[in-house]
Each structure stands twice: as C-alpha cells, then as structure tokens.
Amino acid sequence: MNAAGTAQSGTRTAGPLWAWAGAAAGLAGVVAVQVSGGITAAYDEESAGDVSAVDQALLAQADSLLALHTALMAATVLLPVFAAGLWRRLRPAVPGDSLLPAVAAMGLVLTAVATLLGSGLNTELYFGLISPRGDLAPEFALIGAHWVGTIPWLWVGAGITGVAVAAASLRYRAVPLWLGWTSALIGGLTLVAGISPLQYTAGYTGPVWVLIAGIGFALSRPAAR
To answer: Which of 17, 80, 104, 176 is deepest in the core (most CB within 10 A)?
Structure first.
C-alpha cells in the first residue's frame, strides 16, 4: 500500500514536469515562428531574386539567425520529453490495443525533427555571414534565407498529435473535454494546413496547440479508470 502510494505520488510529481516541458516547447515554437517571419531577406521586394542583395540583407538580419537557432533547439529538446509524458498519460486511459498514445507521441517526435532541421543551417549562415574573409557564398545565403523562412514552419506533426489527443478525449474521456475540443479545432487546423499546399501556415497554429496542451496537461489530473 505504501509502495503504491509512493508510486502514485511520484506520478503526480513527474507529470507536471513533462507537461510544463510541452508548454515551454510550444512557447519556444511561437518565438521561433515569429523570428523566422522576421527574416525576410529572400522575400523583400528590394532583394528578392537578387543573390547579392539577399546576401547583404541576410547579413543585416544575422542576429535573428542566432535567436531562431536558440528557440528551435529549445523546442527540439523539449518536445521529446512532452511526447514521452503524453504517451504515459494516455496509455492507461485508453484501451490497451489503442494506437492513440503512440500516434500522439510520434507526432511530437516528428515535429522535433522538423525543428532540428529548421535550425540546421543557422550557425553556418551566421558565422559565414559575419566572417571578415567572406566565407559564405552569396548563392548559399540565398538558399539559407529560404530554408530559415520555411522549414521552421513545418508543424504538421503537432496537428497529428492534436487530432490523436482529441480522439482520446472525445472517445475515451482520457483528457478533459475542453482540451479535447481545443485539440480537435487547433490540431485539426494544423493537420489540414500541413497537408495542404499552404503547409507553412501550420506554423501559426501548431506551436499554439503545444503551448495550450502543455498547460492543460500540467493543470489537469489523469482520468480515473
């Protein structure tokens, strides 16, 4: 009895930590998308299509590359923690043969891969741009400017997770109904946006769902079975 009580107490203590990790990942994602949207070297009318002009414009925005790197990497290391905790939270609340906990976790892992790749060129671009030797070829700066303006927005995996959480809530009452309906709405929008040719718009809603879900799981109790 004491051992069981200790185990349950441990679960209650650990639960909010993974959930707050999710909230922090969502916040980092929101910051990353905002910073990415501000790196406009490849899209401004004055520079778009001109390799040398993009190179100079990206140099002026070089500090944003470091901010983007930091925010994306924070999301990258926090999302798997949220994924593992979410799997543990859903597993006892749904039938044993349900795929929903695994699908929910895999969606977040997929998102973490996207944020990792989104940050992959940032430091290469930054140090190449500020090098007094001019180490960065303007053509690579053009590619990099498009990379940081697109890959960080690939949050369709969060849509997969949101829809899985919605199904677990609405079918099995595995999570609070308000979070289930919120997941159905925001997660569904993220999934549809990510599948559509407007895939980068998933970056507007995906991090917001992760932030809301992290807070929601942190403040709610596991469903009784």
So the answer is: 104
